[in-house]
């Protein structure tokens, strides 16, 4: 639904087609998008924006990068976790010291007879503050944008946690001899209270706390409502009880403001019992006050809770995606796939794909190197430069940014091609394995792949199917996270591609896996075609058809091609293709897209946990594809303008002969595979 | 019913008494006798006139292939699959995912009466229709705001201007300022009302009685005159006076204003010794409670409060349930507590009505501690009573909360939808204007 909304945004004209009812669904999606998904994105991006300063010496870099983002992103494997734990320990320690300091038994008395800090605890405090200061300074130095860093809410908290200490020291040192010591003491006391803020530093290490803060910020409307309800209730009941109890002898309800306290304590059902009504009328008012209080407090809270859970879900999802990417990058930085963690079999196979993509990318970059602009270097420069060309995220990133600009159609396609390549790799990778089993001479990489293959009992083609299909899982994920209660009909989930005659007329006797193969092989051909006809139209790729289809297309499907969803193979093909669409649309819009609901069950009936895991892994990979695209969501929304022409042009080309390419492709695949194994060996 | 042959999805030519229809690419063979169960429907008409001239046929369907005897319709096949059910089962269920409004249009096209729609789907439809109506209402309001007033007479224009100024805070800067001022005056008057009761801030009058501070009284008077002016202006500018006077918000406004004037007139009567002074003072005291009504004036400025009143209105039944549960609980537990505490010599429970208070305070988990059980049995009873109280409150409160949440979210969604709709209309009008300029 929200994808539709974005489509509508893209093609303003198509808006007229939607009836008022659908408009409401769009409104739901719009609210969700604006309230949760985009902000969550932004919040995460601001957190995950790892600071990499050019001028900080290389020596500090590992420390800095691990300090900068405890969620990962460091040159030290595991180092970031240690640092995060140390940091948490310091926070807890300093808070405990702070509270112990107020125990009268532990306090010292200074020369004026005032209670002062215990010297041991003061040492603890100094050590903690030193750590916090170091942390803050390193972070500050290593941040790419100082002002942005300064403004970040978490960093403001850090600063507020440190500053009171220094201000206190400054004040006491500078005023030691001055007579107005009393005033200084009072100020110092206030600053001591501010030390409590350091407990908020824990927010950096806890997703839950961040979500809480974010939720409170987002739902200030509901919080305001809660306070308003309470304030009104307090005012009404306190004045009522005041008038009821006024004439009682030595009553405690002396005025309306005095009975505010009673009303608050009663409405929140705390009930200290220091003030309570004594007359009958007062007791009736009190009883009503209790019940009204329970009601009034309970009303707005579910909305806030709902907001919280919504945001928390989204954040968890995206964080997971980021983590996957971290693992991937770390493995790549380590240079070899072989040395990878044994536990991470499925992650490994993913990387294999990536490495293969890398190879092809390397080739391709010779052709399109102006399209794939190099990523800003980070971490260890040498490895990074490799990475920027290798990982699809990195290569996709610049091209997405270029999307925002007009007249960038070739760039579109290069991004797509990467994706196709990725698909093809997923496909071809599993295919040669069958052969290699018999052949014997294997690269280690392929062996690793073997491990993965041997676990599932299913046939390998089905794995391949899973690989290509798992993109739909990402859409499931986002679909769940943003489920509109309005069920998606088959027409919504229809892949627009099926409206194109060439596609729909696919032979129904084809196995789904064959269909996949078809897909993958087409993917292979495209770069080759691109290579041969350097400046030729890239729209020869059939996949480009379903890259950001215009709404027009999908609408057409909904009316003409509706039957397709029921018949197995065709809808299978659409399900294979629709993920592509969904990937791109999510990348561009950060919203859930096609409903996977009525994909045929065959796709979701993998019994092997391994495959499921595999799917999961790749899903996240997909997600981080769009996480990685650093363009702002708004920018992404803006890109809608120039799609209509592109898509139309592509549709015009979409009827290219497809079937003849298969053999040719198979030939192409083998050398590539061989090359791959050579390079790994 | 199952003996009736199913439609055949085959491509062979149809035999006598059958027709083949092709709806949006889906070919269906239908039997004439089945179709004739609803003779007024489009398909039955098609069947009955299939031998006649082509003009009638082309008026009934989009296209006709005489060689294959196939009728083409450019309609939604999904909806048709549901609609065809009527011939077999005499009822229609809307498939999940089809927009019910759309579906009704399809049904109209196939000339099938809406009454065959099954109850379960009717509820769905009516719900959606209600939503649409609400959206339309909101759109109308927005459009009215945007509309340039083209009233004929000057007084009407003046009235319209005043109405917008007072009722639509978003319409202009001045209107917004007025709204903020009225909000602030509500707050100030509420604060003044509370502060006025603090003994330290009161002054003694000639008879040695505590009365409100003159400054506070002056503020009170100013606020009251503002409220009065506001109310009168609203009343004067409203297009429909009776409707205005009876609407909920304005009744509250009226209630907030009237005590002040009643008190004024009563004191006037008292000073002119037309009434006894003591009586007047009692009446004035009683009327002071009425001042609380002004707090409700805040509801005009908060959509959340309006939602609350809506939700409470809608869940009156649950509120009754809550009160009933509480009432039963109070009776049972106060009686139990009273009997159990009788054994204790210094019991705080002197009578059952007195222990009502204890029961309420315990069941709502407030627990002041002014009355508490002292015997063991009484303590056990207290524990049970507070557990029961939690449950008795939690159970009926859930539907109330649910009502509130649903209402709140829906309000937000419908508002967004209405905005969307307005955007859409602007878009349409813009497109039309462009088309006109082109031609």
UniProtKB/TrEMBL annotation, chain A:
One of its GO terms (biological process) is action potential. Residues 490-501, 569-583 have a biased composition (Low complexity). It is found in: Cell projection, Axon; Cell projection, Dendrite; Membrane; Perikaryon. It holds the Pfam family Ion_trans. GO terms for cellular component: axon; dendrite; perikaryon; postsynaptic membrane; voltage-gated potassium channel complex. Residues 82-315 form the Ion transport domain. Keywords: Ion channel, Ion transport, Isopeptide bond, Membrane, Postsynaptic cell membrane, Potassium, Potassium channel, Potassium transport, Synapse, Transmembrane, Transmembrane helix, Transport, Ubl conjugation, Voltage-gated channel. Residues 637-649 have a biased composition (Basic and acidic residues). Residues 367-409, 490-545, 563-604, 620-681 are annotated as: Disordered. Gene3D superfamilies: 1.10.287.70, Voltage-gated potassium channels. Chain C (1.20.120.350). It is a multi-pass membrane protein. It comes from the Eukaryota. The chain crosses the membrane at residues 82-100, 120-141, 223-243, 255-272, 284-308. SUPFAM superfamilies: Voltage-gated potassium channels. GO terms for molecular function: delayed rectifier potassium channel activity. Its main location: other. InterPro entries: Ion_trans_dom, K_chnl_volt-dep_Kv, K_chnl_volt-dep_Kv2, K_chnl_volt-dep_Kv2.1, VG_K_chnl, Volt_channel_dom_sf. Residues 385-398, 584-596 have a biased composition (Polar residues). This is Potassium voltage-gated channel subfamily B member 1.
UniProtKB/TrEMBL annotation, chain B:
It is found in: Cell membrane. One of its GO terms (biological process) is protein homooligomerization. InterPro entries: Ion_trans_dom, K_chnl_volt-dep_Kv, K_chnl_volt-dep_Kv5/Kv9, KCNF1-like_BTB_POZ, SKP1/BTB/POZ_sf, T1-type_BTB, VG_K_chnl, Volt_channel_dom_sf. The keyword Nucleus does not apply. This is Potassium voltage-gated channel subfamily F member 1. Residues 176-411 form the Ion transport domain. Keywords: Cell membrane, Ion channel, Ion transport, Membrane, Potassium, Potassium channel, Potassium transport, Transmembrane, Transmembrane helix, Transport, Voltage-gated channel. It is a multi-pass membrane protein. Residues 19-120 form the Potassium channel tetramerisation-type BTB domain. It holds the Pfam family BTB_2. The keyword Repeat does not apply. One of its GO terms (molecular function) is voltage-gated potassium channel activity. GO terms for cellular component: voltage-gated potassium channel complex. The chain crosses the membrane at residues 173-198, 242-269, 319-340, 352-371, 383-401. CDD domains: BTB_POZ_Kv5_KCNF1 (cd18381).
């Amino acid at each position: 639904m929200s994808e539709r909304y974005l489509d509508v945004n893209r093609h303003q004209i198509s808006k007229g087609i939607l009836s008022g009812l659908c408009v409401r669904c769009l409104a739901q999606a719009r609210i969700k998008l604006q309230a949760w998904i985009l902000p969550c994105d932004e919040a995460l991006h601001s957190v995950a924006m790892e600071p990499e300063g050019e001028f900080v010496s290389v020596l500090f870099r590992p420390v800095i990068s691990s300090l900068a983002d405890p969620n990962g992103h460091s040159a030290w494997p595991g180092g970031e976790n240690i640092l995060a734990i140390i940091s948490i320990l310091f926070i807890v320690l300093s808070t405990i010291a702070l509270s112990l300091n107020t125990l009268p038994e532990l306090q010292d008395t200074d020369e004026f007879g005032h209670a002062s800090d215990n010297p041991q605890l003061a040492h603890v405090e100094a050590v903690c503050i030193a750590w916090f200061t170091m942390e803050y300074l390193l972070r500050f130095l290593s941040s790419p944008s100082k002002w942005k860093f300064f403004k970040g809410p978490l960093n403001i908290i850090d600063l507020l946690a440190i500053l009171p200490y220094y201000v206190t020291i400054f004040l006491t040192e500078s005023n030691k001899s001055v007579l107005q010591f009393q005033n200084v003491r009072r100020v110092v006391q206030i600053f001591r209270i501010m030390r409590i803020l350091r407990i908020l530093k824990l927010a950096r290490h806890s997703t839950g706390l961040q979500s809480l803060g974010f939720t409170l910020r987002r739902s200030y409307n509901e919080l305001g409502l809660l306070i308003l309800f309470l304030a009104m209730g307090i005012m009404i009941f306190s004045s009522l009880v005041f008038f009821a109890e006024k004439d009682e002898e030595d009553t405690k309800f002396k005025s309306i403001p005095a009975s505010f306290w009673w009303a608050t304590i009663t409405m929140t059902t705390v009930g200290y019992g220091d003030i309570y009504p004594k007359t009958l009328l007062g007791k009736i008012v009190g009883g009503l006050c209790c019940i009204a209080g329970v009601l009034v407090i309970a009303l707005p809270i579910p909305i806030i809770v709902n907001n919280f859970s919504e945001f928390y879900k989204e954040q968890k999802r995206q964080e997971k995606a980021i983590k996957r990417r971290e693992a991937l990058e770390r493995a790549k930085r380590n240079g070899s796939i072989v040395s990878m963690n044994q536990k991470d079999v499925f992650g490994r196979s993913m990387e294999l794909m990536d490495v293969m993509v890398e190879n092809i990318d390397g080739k391709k970059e010779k052709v399109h190197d102006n399209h794939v602009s190099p990523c800003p270097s980070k971490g260890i420069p040498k490895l990074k430069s490799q990475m920027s060309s290798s990982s699809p995220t990195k290569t996709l990133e610049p091209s997405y940014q270029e999307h925002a600009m007009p007249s960038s159609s070739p760039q579109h396609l290069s991004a797509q091609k990467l994706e196709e390549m990725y698909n093809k790799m997923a496909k071809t990778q599993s295919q040669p394995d069958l052969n290699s089993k018999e052949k014997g001479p294997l690269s280690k990489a392929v062996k690793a792949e073997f491990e993965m293959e041997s676990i599932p009992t299913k046939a390998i083609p089905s794995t391949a199917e899973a690989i290509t299909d798992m993109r739909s899982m990402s859409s499931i994920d986002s679909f769940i996270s943003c489920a509109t209660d309005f069920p998606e009909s088959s027409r919504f989930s229809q892949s627009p591609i099926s409206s194109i005659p060439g596609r729909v007329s696919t032979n129904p006797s084809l196995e789904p896996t064959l269909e996949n193969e078809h897909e993958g092989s087409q993917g292979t051909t495209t770069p080759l075609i691109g290579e041969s006809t350097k400046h030729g139209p890239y729209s020869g790729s059939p996949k480009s058809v379903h890259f950001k289809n215009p709404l027009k297309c999908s609408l057409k499907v909904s009316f003409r091609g509706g039957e397709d969803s029921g018949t197995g193979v065709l809808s299978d093909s659409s399900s294979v293709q629709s993920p592509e669409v969904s990937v791109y649309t999510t990348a561009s819009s950060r919203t859930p897209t096609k409903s996977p609901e009525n994909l045929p069950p065959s796709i979701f009936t993998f019994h092997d946990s391994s495959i499921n895991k595999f799917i999961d892994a790749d899903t996240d990979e997909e997600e981080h594809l769009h996480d990685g695209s650093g363009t702002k969501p708004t920018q992404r929304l803006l890109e809608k303008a120039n799609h209509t022409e592109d898509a139309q042009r592509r549709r015009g080309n979409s009827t290219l002969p497809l079937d003849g390419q298969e053999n040719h492709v198979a030939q192409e695949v083998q050398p590539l595979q061989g090359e791959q194994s050579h390079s790994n060996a | 019913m199952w003996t009736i042959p199913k439609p055949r999805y085959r491509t062979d030519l149809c035999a006598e008494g059958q027709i083949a229809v092709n709806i949006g690419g889906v070919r269906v063979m239908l039997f004439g006798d089945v179709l004739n169960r609803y003779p007024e429907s489009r398909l039955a008409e098609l069947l009955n006139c299939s031998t006649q001239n082509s003009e009638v046929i082309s008026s009934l369907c989009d296209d006709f292939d005489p060689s294959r005897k196939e009728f083409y319709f450019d309609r939604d096949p999904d909806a048709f699959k549901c609609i065809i059910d009527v011939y077999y089962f005499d009822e229609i269920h809307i498939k999940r995912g089809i927009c019910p409004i759309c579906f009704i249009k399809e049904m109209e096209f196939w000339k099938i009466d809406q009454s065959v729609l099954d109850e379960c789907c009717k509820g769905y439809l009516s719900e959606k229709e209600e939503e649409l109506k609400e959206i339309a209402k909101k759109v109308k309001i927005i459009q009215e705001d945007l509309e340039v007033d083209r009233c004929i007479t000057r007084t009407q224009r003046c009235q319209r201007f005043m109405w917008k100024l007072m009722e639509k805070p978003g319409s202009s800067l001045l209107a917004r300022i007025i709204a903020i001022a009225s909000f602030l005056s509500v707050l100030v008057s509420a604060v003044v009302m509370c502060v006025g009761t603090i003994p330290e801030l009161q002054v003694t009058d000639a008879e040695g009685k505590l009365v409100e501070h003159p400054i506070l009284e002056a503020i009170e008077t100013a606020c009251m005159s503002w409220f009065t002016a506001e109310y009168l202006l609203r009343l004067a500018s409203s297009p429909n006076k009776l409707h205005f006077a009876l609407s909920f918000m304005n009744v509250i406004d009226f209630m907030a204003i009237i005590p002040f004037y009643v008190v004024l007139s009563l004191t006037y009567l008292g000073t002119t010794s037309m009434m006894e002074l003591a009586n007047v003072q009692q009446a004035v005291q009683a009327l002071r409670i009425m001042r609380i009504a002004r707090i409700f004036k805040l509801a005009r400025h908060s959509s959340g409060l309006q939602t609350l009143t809506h939700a409470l209105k809608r869940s009156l039944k649950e509120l009754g349930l809550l009160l009933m549960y509480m009432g039963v609980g109070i009776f049972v537990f106060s009686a139990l507590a009273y009997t159990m505490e009788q054994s204790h010599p210094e019991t705080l429970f002197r009578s059952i009505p007195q222990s009502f208070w204890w029961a309420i305070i315990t069941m709502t988990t407030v627990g002041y501690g002014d009355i508490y059980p002292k015997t063991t049995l009484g303590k056990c009873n207290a524990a049970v009573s507070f557990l029961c109280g939690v449950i008795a409150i939690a159970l009926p409160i859930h539907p109330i909360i649910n009502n509130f949440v649903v209402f709140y979210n829906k309000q937000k969604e419908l508002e967004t939808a209405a905005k969307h709709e307005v955007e859409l209309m602007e878009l349409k009008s813009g497109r039309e204007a462009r088309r006109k300029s082109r031609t």
